[in-house]
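User: Can you predict the 3D structure for this chain?
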Amino acid sequence: MDPTVRHSIYSLLLVATTGMMVARVANVELLYEPSVHTPKPNPDKPGEFYAARKWPDKVPPTWPSFSSNDRSRWATVKALVEDNTFVVGERIPDPADPKGYRDVGLVKADGFGSVDYVLHPERQQFFSTKPPLLTLFVAGQYWVLHKYLHKDMVEDKWEVAVPILIVTNVLPLVLALWLLARLLERYATTDWGRLFVFTAACFGTFLTTFAVTLNNHVPAACCVTYAVYAMVRWAGGPPRVESRIREWYPHAGVESEEAVRPGSPLWLGVAGVFAGLAVCFELPAAAFAGALLLIVLLRAPRGLILLVPALALPIGAQAVVNYKAIGTWEPIYTKFGGPWYEYEGSHWAKPKLWESGKAPKPDDPGIDFADEPKDEYAFHLLVGHHGLFSLTPVWALALIGIVLPAAIRGAATLLHRLTLLIAAAVIGFYIYKTNNYGGWTSGPRWFFWLTPLFLLAMAPAADLLGRSRPTRVFGYLLLGASVFSATYPWANPWRHPWIYQWCDYMGWVHY
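Assistant: Here is the predicted structure, written as structure tokens:
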């Protein structure tokens, strides 16, 4: 295929997915679904029903936010811009209240209620549980809208939320997809393989699903893409095709092998900054940052002089902001299981109340407190109701692609091989240390930042699939199922996956 035609197809797909994301952002609104508010029968106790969310007594106000996750972020943004503080509420003494205290501030305001708040034990102040650097970036956007355009987050909800979501999620993702297309031009070897992977990137992952909500997963995945692209540019970029690949695809129509020309070492600085930002947005992305350090150590140790400071820059900035916000260098996440999270009235204090007998444990404690054996949790996290591979089955091709002979040389090949190690480390951590599915979420959001690595790892397998009609049909089935999973939560990404809903409907599982 003429490269010009292929690039035109990339552009068409990119324009289509951009239009879809912008349309969903422009129409962002929390919808009240009767199915979520309908009690479900308890299969273990005939005649009894699981409790459901309370249906509003009157028409509720409209909000461009969906869940505890994004509401706690929006609350901090509002507090930063309007009150110059990370504090989103306080607990003050109140002898008139039976509890002896009452909570005031955004934590009790309409549209900002959330379980994702911690209470500073000494200050008795509430903070969002979310890392602060991304929130600070969003606050900068709101500051411009608030100061110069006089927009208010409550009075002018959509005039604030829509442009911020476009700048924070949509535009970075469009850039990431464009860079991915450039990588595929080098990384893949057939027209069908390139277009298959790019179509999967545009429509078959949960990144576009989550573009409609304020979250850390989309920015983290974008930063990983930028870092990978910068590393490839530093390494000089791969040749178009190796002789081994030419033997496999004698009619692929690819160009002759090109020499690898090293790129500017400044690309290492770019890679380090974005890898560091990825760590700030997704702490497990430290495995990716470690992989970059290993690659440079093996290929050109002097490059660490640029990579390490660049990597440390955003991480150090987040630590400083975190200290400014709550008075400690430790991320708030590290406080989980202690008094910061388990204060009186906290959602996260419930298990200890149940264990102590101070409160009865309900039949449906919720997915946040899933109590199941590790093998069952691992099954559902990988191929079950929240499965990485059951919800996005094209990732099976990534596993195949990793073990195929490398299609490129240099730093990109090392990263290709290390993808399996990175993924295994992250997945193993969650299986070993937690039973956490990420709450109400339409996919395994802990792993979304791995998306660009999986997409590139798919390329060799996608090239193989394109060799015959039966294998192409197999690829279409995997892609169709992945697109279905990503599109199913169209109205709200903070809903259970379709597989979980199906299992719940059949009475097979309920948390």
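The radius of gyration is 24 Å. The longest strand covers residues 89-93.
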